[in-house]
Amino acid sequence: MNKTLKAAALAVAFFGITSASYAADVVVQFDPNTVQYGYTDGYWSRTHEWHQWAAPEHVDVYRKAPNASYYEYKHDRDPDMGWRVR
User: Fold this and answer.
1) Given this model, what pLDDT does residue 39 score?
2) CB 30 within 8 A of CB 55
């Protein structure tokens, strides 16, 4: 019984360590091509979903992207909530 308990404890410890290392390996990258319109408080995606900027550097990446439509105000200023029809 003592060997079984040790083996179970090792299995649980190993599983916990390996699953934690997988979680640490996840990298979220920002793709400026998914943004239709950018605002100071977030952006509309091309699929018409609202997102807040996940990181301040994403704003800079998007603003430097070719053909970026960035507006230096919050999206809710306009009655259409910032979604524009071109």
Assistant:
1) 95
2) yes
Strand partners, 50: 44
The confidence score (pLDDT) of residue 74 equals: 94
Long-range CB contact pairs, 47-56, < 8 A, 24+: 48/83, 50/75, 50/81, 54/28, 54/30, 55/30
Global pTM reads: 0.64
Q: How far apart are CA 31 and CA 61, in angstroms?
A: 9
Q: How many CB atoms lie within 10 A of CB 66?
A: 6
Q: Mind listing the pLDDT tens digit for each residue in 49-59?
A: 999 999 999 99
Helix, strand, coil content of the chain in percent (nearest 5)? 45, 15, 40
How does strand 35-39 pair with strand 42-45?
antiparallel
